[in-house]
Write a structure and sequence with these properties.
Chain A: It holds the Pfam family BPD_transp_1. Chain A: Belongs to the binding-protein-dependent transport system permease family. Chain A: It is found in: Cell membrane. The complex is a heterodimer of chains A (about 290) and B (about 300). With about 290 residues, chain A is mainly α. Chain A is built from 14 helices and 2 strands, in the order ααββαααααααααααα. Chain A has one domain: MetI-like fold, CATH 1.10.3720. In chain A, about 75% of the residues lie in helices and about 5% in strands. In chain A, strand 1 and strand 2 form a beta hairpin. The longest helix of chain A has about 35 residues. Chain A is globular, with a radius of gyration of 24 Å. By secondary structure, chain B is an all-alpha fold. Chain B has a domain of about 160 residues: Orthogonal Bundle (MetI-like fold). Chain B has 14 helices and no strands. The chains are: A mainly alpha (about 290), B mainly alpha (about 300). At the A-B interface, helix 1, helix 2, helix 4, helix 5 and helix 6 of A face helix 1, helix 2, helix 5, helix 6 and helix 7 of B.
């Protein structure tokens, strides 16, 4: 029987092309990029080896420290925001809107498919103070407050970024978590209610533990995406003011293409990759432990 | 956990009066309505504002309240964006890069998914893991070597680099999702078919592909949004102004007019948004299912 399904020639023909393209576009360049880390130069001027100079520069570069700190801060805040907002929405869908939630779910999900560049430009104009007072500042003026120059300082620009990325993706996490909540058997909730548990108590002692697995996979997915944030920042602030909102991804891009230093750019890319792997590993380990305890 | 549960149960049982069932829903319903209304305003108003602004003249935009309706409805902003702003060209470039990449990715990914899930051979779970690893690594890690190769092979002045890079970076998720879909197709089906004289390659194409037609649409949609909305790869490999995709073009939109023309700029943003909106309008359930199932890969 297995003779047909074990046909080696067929396996090679079916899998070969995909594996070849994947290797050439992803695997080989990854290793190659590793090699670039020990060089200086770029494609047009050529490369010269310079040992571990890029790595010692990485350790002492204040811009890298700032970008790393910004990346982590952004990832933690936005991940928390996305998952919490998504979870609250999912609870709203399941327990309050019930069957009527399909339309709301679809509407709130909608920004997920919008091009990030478009959303970034839209929010830039929505929060702007000059040349025209945008809707947010108009609202502030209407209630008697002064306009805020949101993009004038890194601190406020960061929060606009956070608001934008939560706005963009909370519908996604809501649907993801909704699928987990809907799986909770009605009898379990019913028996809890019969026992007199209400509201927050049901959520805390029954809903939350039972939806922990899907909550954890949302968390992993979100942190994996937010560590790699690029599009939203380029479109909204382009890393500014100064380098106030520059994450590692953007710093790598600027180093490589604005300053044509591919060697150091590759070193920053490597740092980013290591950070992604470490964080995923930690989150994964923590989530495993929580699941076995719960 | 068990002790807390029983503690809650016993403590709650001691309260004799059951929760008043009739009054509660009415009370909650009002705040639910308010929350939903706020939610919808927050989700939808920015888009309405964007659309209204796209119909204003520069003077109208700069000198009237941001809340106001356009004094004249400047539909000409759209043709201005499309031609003078080159959005037409950028949309065309995007389509020329996205569609071939999508076709290639689906074809290769389906074949690989079949080989990894239906066929029986040593090392297939390891191969799947190798594909999965590609989803973890940030794309920054592959940009510079690819740039060098595309430059040295002379591909740089074309859309080729985009098509190749999109295909390669999209394969991990495509292969994984297709392999998952093939899990629900029984192997016996192909064993029976091949006994009837059809080769396994033919069985793949004539029997298995029609069976996963639905999955192909779902994966295709998910990947379409990813590639269409991509900025990083497009920004890296389109040095030529005439090769810009819609996202890169939109990012540099203001540069083409000298001074910023707000009406056409918003019109360009709208054109970009409405494309995806249209797809979402018709296929939203599939899009939602596809995008979220791509996430629960664990």
């Amino acid at each position: 029987m297995h003779r047909v399904l074990g046909d080696r020639r067929a396996v090679v023909l079916l899998l070969g092309p995909a594996l070849l393209v994947y290797s050439l576009i992803m695997l080989v360049p990854m290793v190659w990029s590793l090699g670039y880390s020990f060089t200086k130069g770029n494609t047009i001027d050529g490369f010269t080896g310079n040992g571990v100079a890029n790595f010692s520069r990485l350790l002492h570069d204040p811009a890298v420290h700032h970008a790393l700190w910004f990346t982590l801060k952004y990832a933690v805040v936005v991940t928390a925001g996305q998952v919490v907002a998504g979870y609250l929405l999912a609870l709203l869908y399941v327990f309050f809107l019930k069957r009527a939630s399909a339309l709301i779910r679809t509407l709130v999900f909608f920004p997920v498919v919008l091009p990030t560049v478009a959303v970034g430009l839209l929010f830039q104009k929505f929060f702007q103070v000059a040349p025209q007072t945008g809707p947010v500042n108009s609202l502030l003026n209407a209630v008697g407050l002064d306009s805020i120059d949101f993009f004038g300082s890194a601190g406020s620009a960061f929060w606009v970024l956070v608001v934008m990325d939560i706005w963009r993706s909370m519908g996604f996490y809501a649907v993801l978590l909704f699928a987990g909540l809907i799986d909770i058997p009605d009898e379990v909730l019913e028996s809890a209610r019969l026992d007199g548990a209400t509201g927050l108590r049901v959520v805390r002692h029954i809903v939350l533990p039972l939806s922990l697995p899907v909550l954890m996979s949302s968390l992993i997915f979100s942190i994996n995406g937010t560590l790699k944030v690029f599009d939203s920042i380029v479109a909204l602030t382009n890393g500014g003011p100064g380098n106030g909102t520059t994450p590692l991804t953007l710093y790598m891009f600027q180093t490589s293409f604005t300053y044509s230093d591919y060697g150091y750019g590759s070193t920053i890319a490597l740092l980013l990759t290591v950070v992604c792997l470490l964080v995923s590993l930690v989150v994964y380990r923590v989530s495993r432990r929580d699941l076995t305890e719960g | 956990m068990a002790t807390i549960d029983t503690a809650v149960k016993t403590s709650v049982r001691s309260t004799s009066t059951p929760p008043a069932k009739t009054s509660r829903p009415r009370g909650t319903r009002l705040w639910v309505k308010i929350v939903v209304a706020l939610l919808l305003i927050v989700e939808i108003y920015p888009l309405v504002w964007m659309f209204l602004t796209s119909l204003k003249s520069n003077d109208d935009y700069l000198n009237h309240s941001t809340w106001s309706l356009p004094t004249h409805w400047e539909w000409g902003n759209y043709s201005e964006a499309w031609t003078t702003g080159h959005i037409g060209l950028y949309v065309q470039n995007s389509l020329l890069a996205v569609l071939p990449a999508l076709a290639l990715m689906l074809l290769l990914g389906t074949a690989a998914g079949f080989a990894l899930q239906i066929m029986v051979w040593k090392g297939r779970s390891l191969t799947l893991l190798v594909f999965l690893a590609g989803m973890m690594v940030p794309p920054q890690m592959i940009l510079l070597p690819l740039f060098t190769v595309y430059f040295q092979t002379g591909l740089s002045g074309t859309l080729g680099p985009l098509i190749l890079t999109y295909t390669g970076t999209g394969l991990p998720l495509t292969v994984f999702m297709m392999a998952t879909y093939y899990r629900s197709v029984p192997r016996e089906l192909f064993e029976a078919a091949t006994i009837d004289g059809a080769g396994i390659l033919r069985a793949f194409w004539t029997i298995s592909v029609p069976m996963v037609r639905n999955a192909l649409l779902t994966v295709g949609l998910v990947q379409f949004f990813f590639i269409w909305n991509d900025l990083l790869i497009a920004l890296t490999f389109t040095n030529d102004q005439d090769l810009r995709t819609i996202q890169v073009g939109l990012l540099n939109f203001t540069g083409d007019f000298g001074a910023t023309q707000y009406g056409p700029l918003f019109a360009a943003i709208c054109i970009n948004v409405f494309g995806t909106l249209l797809i979402y309008l018709f296929l939203n359930q599939k899009v939602m299912k596809g995008l979220t199932s791509g996430a629960v890969k664990g």
